[in-house]
Design a protein that fits this description.
single chain; 345 residues; alpha/beta; Rossmann fold; 6-stranded mixed sheet; 11 strands; 21% strand
Amino acid sequence: MFAALNKSAARLNRAVNIMEVCGTHTNAIARFGLKKVLNKKINLISGPGCPVCVTSDIDLWRGINLAARRNVAICTFADMLRVPDISGNSLAAAKADGADVRVVYSPMDALDFARKTRKNVVLIAAGFETTAPAVAAVILKAAKLKLKNFFVFPMLKLINPAIKILLDGENNIDAFLLPGHVSLVLGMEPYKFIARKYKKTCVIGGFEATEIIAALEKIVNQINLGRAEIENAYPPVRAEGNAAAREIMFNVFTPYAALWRGLGRIKNSGLKIKKEFSAYDALANFKFPPPPKIKPSGCKCSAVLAGKITPEQCNLFGKKCMPQNPMGPCMVSGEGACRALYENR
């Protein structure tokens, strides 16, 4: 399986840095032990594709602030529970203190709960283009049902503005392994700026070992030929993507300048709820006090997410920061680079 890729990599005139944008790829690469068997000229770098990891401290603090309120129930995905906020608190800690915090497996689970309770139910929704259409559909469903106690706190991000910021920065990235599931929604056209403007190779790949190897082989072959194009190595992805999913997403949400951990505020990189659906927007219906000042912890998740360092280059990794005692989000989430490396060393 690796022979053809490693043979092509041996012909490279130098080592190349390939960023796997998606946290699912990071997890899979670690789980399958791919770095151990790849030619040393292939240097895989983790990027900002873990939605929980890139959520800002301020947004996390607001979510935990909501959880502490009477008559509020928080619904969220499991990865968000143990992420520490500015003060070191978390949704899991709030739950231990008596807050009503529930893990859901789909946005519709939160809506169903809201229909059965008198509490104000807030869905904390973190994710990329894969998650956003499902969250949008739930808001449309809530509007149709005229629910008065259902709200969404959107922590949704768009992947391409983050890639552009990385390419405009000082990162030495030669190519991108692009996420298959996000590309099911986006298609291929939105990525073409990577090749056209920045002259970087980019290939869409799936998440099994064979699919990742196939995508990496296409990347290496392009670099050997001096090409920079967008290619697809994940057959379920269509060139046009899923127009229906994009339509429902942008029917409910509109892009805005979102704050990313590690990358700062990025223009048109987040999704906020449109004014016509503001009745379901947690940020429009709940007031928040000023957040506390950020306490430095020594965590270097920001640099890891930007591809500037590897997890081992953080002094806390594997010492003070471990899955059972995470100091930052990259050690919490199953898609975080630090946790993926720690659990698959």
